[in-house]
Amino acid sequence: MPASPFPEIDYGRSLLLTDLYQLNMLEAYLAAGTTGTAVFEFFVRRLPARRGFLLAAGLEQVVGFLTEARVDAAELDWLGRSGRFTGRLLDYLAGFRFTGDLDALPEGTPVFADEPLVRVTAPILEAQLVETRLINFLQYQTLVATKAARMVLSAPGKGLVDFGLRRAHSGEAGLLAARAAWLAGFAGTASVPAEQAFGIPLVGTMAHSFVQAFDSEAEAFLAFARARPDQTVFLLDTYDTERAARTVTEIAPRLAAEGIAVRGVRLDSGDLGAHARKVRRILDDAGLTETKIVASGGLDEAELAALTRAGAPIDLFGIGTSLVTSEDLPALDCAYKLKAYAGRARRKRSEGKAYWPGPTQVHRRRDAEGRPIGDLLARADEPAPAGPGWDAPLLRPVLRAGRPVAPLPSLAKARAHAAEQLARLPEPLTRLAEAPPYEVAVTDGLRALAAEVDGFGRQ
Questions:
Q1: Whether 159 and 276 share a structural domain
Q2: What range(s) does the Nicotinate/nicotinamide phosphoribosyltransferase domain occupy (predicted)?
Q3: How many domains in the chain?
Q4: Distances in Å between the alpha carbon of 371 and those of 114, 396, 419, 428?
């Protein structure tokens, strides 16, 4: 049997799914005896244009990775044969277990510039080695969850379904995109493993190729309905959309006599609003008032908002490429940076990339209606602000000494949390156009620490 073109990588736990410079630094840390405790935080430096907020996502995968991360025997053998590293590093990797602490925002929490999504406190070798994979999990799912949230907010009252697996940049990306979209409020996914892995409801129809394989649309629809009587959503636009809708009304009585209801029809091209109105009229005139209309075909949040505002009679939207690639914004300006080492706060001051030093905490204040009105970025060791309206500190203990403090909330609970948080966002932050900046103030104590660290760095 020929060798697989893909390496055997356990994507949930392999420490070798990393960048070479991580291993280079570990080798040098070990040689120098630099093995003290470090604090790293993952944050976004600035909000992108047309993003009034980000929705934190990916914590479940981070926790799973940190608690299970290993270098297995085959990986160690390959590293040894490569000749790149010393036996000292190989011995360290062979015994690797994450022994540090993790603090994090709950998934589904809106987050803003400079605010850490997670804080890792661990021996520097451990905290450094997990960097690449933590950024993978947090950056991508936060990116997609934010995109999905914008879509949900743009189409109130509509169901949204992830159709993006085939256009995702990998199978893993497609699976995690389905999770992030569900967290943000999508109603389901077409990705089969997403139900297996996360319990996300599966939604699917048929392809044009199925219709084309039969001599008529009526024959195709009847064959599909009889084989999948609970999945009767027919694709209408293979040839002529309105003619196909009439075909559905013609075969519906035959199917009804067999105990099969026509659950829906799907539109995938053309002027979706105009087609939906015509198809709705055809279905209603035939008494198929309960038959839903599904629309897909390159939709993004602007098109969802326009169709919803126009009152297009579409019940469910299938979203693919624009969701899983976050098409208008394919990456966040994010970082996982050293904030302290061996008890001393640290930061870099590179142009455009300076950040606040030391472990930090986020405090959020709300008005009487529960809407956030401003955040405060503080040193983690500063007292929480007193007075009405302040939430509990947003970063909360997740791991201590490498083990969970408590079970994470279920994905369903995280989804409910996200829905509650999104419903409370001030309207300007939810706009598709550029939003006014949300205030993130910085405490005097954190500013003083930055001045102290900068003075130390110039010595």
A1: yes
A2: 160-340
A3: 2
A4: 20, 21, 13, 12
Of the residues 260, 293, 324, which one is the last residue of a structural domain? 324
Phi-psi region of 342 (alpha: psi -120 to 50; beta: other; left: phi over 0): left
Using a pLDDT cut of 70, give the percent of the chain over it.
98
Are residues 224 and 188 part of one domain?
yes
The answer to whether 391 touches 105, Cβ cutoff 8 Å, is no
Residues 6+ apart with CB under 8 A from 181: 144, 145, 148, 160, 162, 189, 319, 323
**Alpha-carbon torsion, ordered 90, 95, 100, 102, to 10 deg:** 90
Average pLDDT over residues 310-327: 98
What CATH number does the domain containing 263 carry?
3.20.20.70
Specify whether 277 is located in the same domain as 293: yes
Q: For residue 451, what is the domain's CATH number?
A: 3.20.140.10
Q: For residue 320, give the nearest of 140, 114, 422, 181 by alpha carbon.
A: 181
Phi, psi of 378, rounded to the nearest 5 degrees = -130, 165
d(CA 249, CA 244): 9
Mean pLDDT over 409-430 rounds to: 97
Last residue of a domain, one of 279, 302, 324: 324
CA distance to 162, 220, 294, 303, 376, per residue, from 297 (Å): 12, 21, 11, 11, 42
3-state secondary structure (DSSP) of residue 414:
helix
Length of the chain measured in residues: 459
Amino acid type, 189: T
Q: Strands across the sheet with 264-267, in order?
A: 188-189, 159-162, 316-319, 292-295, 264-267, 233-235
Q: Is the pLDDT of residue 34 over 90?
A: yes
Residue 393 φ/ψ, nearest 5 degrees: -50, 140
Question: Considering the entire predicted model, what is its pTM?
Answer: 0.95
Cβ neighbours of residue 439 under 8 Å, at least 6 residues apart? Answer: 373, 374, 375
Which of 429, 408, 426, 409 is closest to 417 using CA atoms? 409
